[in-house]
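Input sequence (675 aa), recorded before submission:
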Amino acid sequence: MRQIPALSGAVRVSSQVQIITMSEENKKAGNSGYDASQIQALEGMEHVRMRPSMYIGDVGVRGLHHLVYEVVDNSIDEALAGHCDTISVVITETNGIRVSDNGRGIPVGIHEKEGVSALQVVMTKIGAGGKFDKDAYKVSGGLHGVGVSCVNALSISLRAEVHREGKVYEQEYSRGKELYAVREIGTSEKRGTTVEFQPDEEIFETLVYNYDTLADRMRELSYLNQGITVTLTDERVQDEEGNHLTETFHSTEGLKDFVTYLDGNREAIIQDVIHVSGERNGVPVEVAMTYNNSFSENLFSYVNNINTHEGGTHLTGFRRGLTNTLKKYADGSGMLDKLKFDISGDDFREGLTAVVSVKVAEPQFQGQTKTKLGNAEVSAPVSQAVSDMLEAYLEENPNDAKTIVQKVILAAQARHAARKAREMVQRKTVMGGSGLPGKLADCAEKDPALCELFLVEGDSAGGTAKQGRDRMFQAIMPLRGKILNVEKAMQHKIFDNEEIKNIYTALGVTVGTEEDERALNLAKLRYHKIVIMCDADVDGSHIETLILTFLFRHMKDLIESGYVYIATPPLYQVKKGSRSIYAWNDDERDRLIAEFRGKSGSDSGIHVQRYKGLGEMNAEQLWETTLNPENRTLRQVTIENAAGADHVFSMLMGDDVPPRRKFIEDNAKYANIDA
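Predicted structure, token format:
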């Protein structure tokens, strides 16, 4: 049996080994071994290499791509300062990255305090950069001064090339240390900075860049900074004519274009994208929004081009401005007179797609990850900007105004119905405990951190999984057929769906917190691993996508907390005599067949079994390949780019057929379909 590495979540295997070793040493040394000599003071770059996750989030796929964003953000900051309009990002053949811009170029003169070139200071010192000087950069994304120096520390090699004042300078580094002093290598009429780096295999779990992930971010940056041209090239891919895969991102109308892109697969219910841009109380604010016929709220917020997916004061200001203005208009129109219950703030945001972008000179983020804005002074300017924008639009477009209010009334009625349906889902049994679904085969363990729930396609596979699982910590929940497509359903319809009700009840989660009646409450979550386990066929993929759509739209917190996984059962079993090995793709199968043939080249005695469905495996095989933590491979579901994910889900699961058809045609080469 081939040993498949189990997914270890956020903790790497090497870290676990290190902890064990330290504890063994401490045991040997005893308490007396702890003295002043054991206290280490790490220099900045050493600390980055020792604790990379503190600086870039993690050392997996997300952290790898974060390196690119840190370098590109420097170029964007040059653009925000008005010195740059073209940025080029290249994925090299070796999975390295090259970022070039036409900005002023990093200064290369001798730094007065450090006594070396300013370029070297920027590239090798934590906390060094021009962002601390208000005269150099009015606003910027990278205010912590750790961006490019972190990239340098976590790269096996990095080369910086500066075109400045008619000359070209360069310096190379390895793992954050310069290899030579900054040197002049020629003359140039151009200006700007080029940074090319190769991530360090000692640090990162993977070194392969995903083109689509980078493309989503570059597209996002072009919308957030209208007029800037960003080019992304993948030198790993060539067409028949030898040209590399290249995309150019440029927006003339900024956030208006962004909202149009996000809502490209939804039907708009108002004529135009409502847009405002300008300064309020010294804070540059840009907002774009529209209403569509969907039932979800799609709100995206940015501070200095950084996606603040946890929101913050700018989002609070937007919501307040939107609710107050629309409520005032709706009350004045008389359309709410017959409504028997109050309108909630949520009702004004159903079917809303909006992007809020602010530029703040000194943003106060919560943590280095920069996901939530804390500046209190930002809320009022955003609220005022939204109020002014909406008041003008509603007065000038009475038909659209009436349509929006009707949408709000419909949302309020649906919310009222959804609350009743939700109460039915969340009601307590006569015995006082939460009634679990009859189909759920629960586990004995009660600690959520140790418990796993498998959402299994079909009763047949569910039966096999129940027999093959470890009853101590693995629970099985069979799902019958395809769950509701929540992309096209009102909220109360979702709670009426039997399979979705069972998922809510099995997980133990509820809807509604003190702050937000629609927010997911994870206080009583019963499992910290929720594993989607479907057949490896077209129907299985469809069910997987339906479940992921439901989780993304209504249980996003589960994904963001890292609780959602996808199981990867094998596609083949290759046998010869007493030897039996599993294969997860066609290439592995062919390699195993060739291995079994050996020198004879004969297929005699080789048997290949294709597992079309989970039900074709017996309980022992399912445990061995898919359930056993020692052998299995789980794929963790993460959200790299919320706006990009929203666009994909609306395209795949919405009503608009042509974009979905194009997506299938573009990606059909990756599908394994049995005739």
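Checked by second reader. Residues 1-32, 130-138, 428-434 have pLDDT under 50 and may be disordered.
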